[in-house]
Protein: Odorant receptor
Amino acid sequence: MPFEWTIRKNKIKPILQNDVLLNLMLVPNTIISNKFLVILNYFYFGFIILQSVFVAVIIITKDEWKLLNGQYAGYTSGCAIVWSSYITMYTYVDKFLNLYKEIFPHLWSLDVVGQDHFNKFSKMAKVLKLGKNILLVVGFLSATVGLPWYRDEYEIIITVRVYKDYVDKWTTLLYFVLFSSLYHIALTVIFCVLCLVYMVLHLHNQCVMLNKRLEALDDEQLFLDNDNYQDFVTKELKFCIQQHQFLLKFAKRLNDILYYPTFYYVLSGVVTGVSLLLFPKNDIKNLLRCVLIIVLGGGFAISFCFLGQILENASEELLFSAYSARWYLWNIKNRKLLSVFLLKTQDNIVLSSSGIITINFRLLISLYQSIYSCLTFLLNIK
Structure:
């Protein structure tokens, strides 16, 4: 991404009418529209790049490969999470914004299928607003816990060990920048999470509203009262087919953004889980820190999988509604259109990393199975 300040012009502005979820974008909007924060973002981004290159050079030239395993494995996997978040923010922020500008003008307003649905969505938005505040607090606590309170950072953080062993001067300044960057990293992760939640919930809502529109075709009163019923069904089915293809395009572009981050998050989650169990420390302070890491990691994993699962469920309900349609009331032309719609809805609208990793509740089971398998394998070797 080129170094330029035009990003300040890309602040997310309301497109959908009565978009109650736009509050989720308050933090991302602040980050990408404030000049001071933009400068700070580039400073920390540059620092982390140089720091990673420096550590990699030390590991290669000094034959310090042992730093990538043992008690440092957790930190190594944590770096993968950090880099995944930074790649998402700095490489894909324009894609997020372009996706928003190109897709959202064509989406339905939240109140298009009735006030009851809008009220339900508004209540969920209030819960998400509370969740956003909790996420900010959790991010602050996570960064604070990462500070050198226990004086054992030399034993678990590769960068600290490299600084102490191979840098004689400026270590105090480097430590200050390193640990202050934890807060910036937390803010970056929160940025990515809120953008993803905002996009996925709107995609899910569009699937729900499309399903309600499809269910409306089953109203026998329309068949009895409307002389042009068959023409009405034809028009609605064609629209549903086009809208479903549009939502598939929406999901595909979102999955393109999630391709690498999803892979890194899953891999780092497995490595972190194995390292915490394989290299435990027996004192109460480190036990509390491990518990916090497990709770935070588990909470993020459950949240992401929940988003993917509700989206997948909404997509499957479209297929179920199509199968349940009263096709026997329709003419041959509309039955053929229904057949086309059934074929199209075989392609589920899901969150996935190129079809290799699908984000749903089954992914949680796969994660725990992978952690157990790796841990068993390493214990047998050990």
User: Anything to note?
Assistant: The first helix runs from residue 26 to 33. Residues 25-381 form one domain. DSSP finds twelve helices and two strands in the chain.
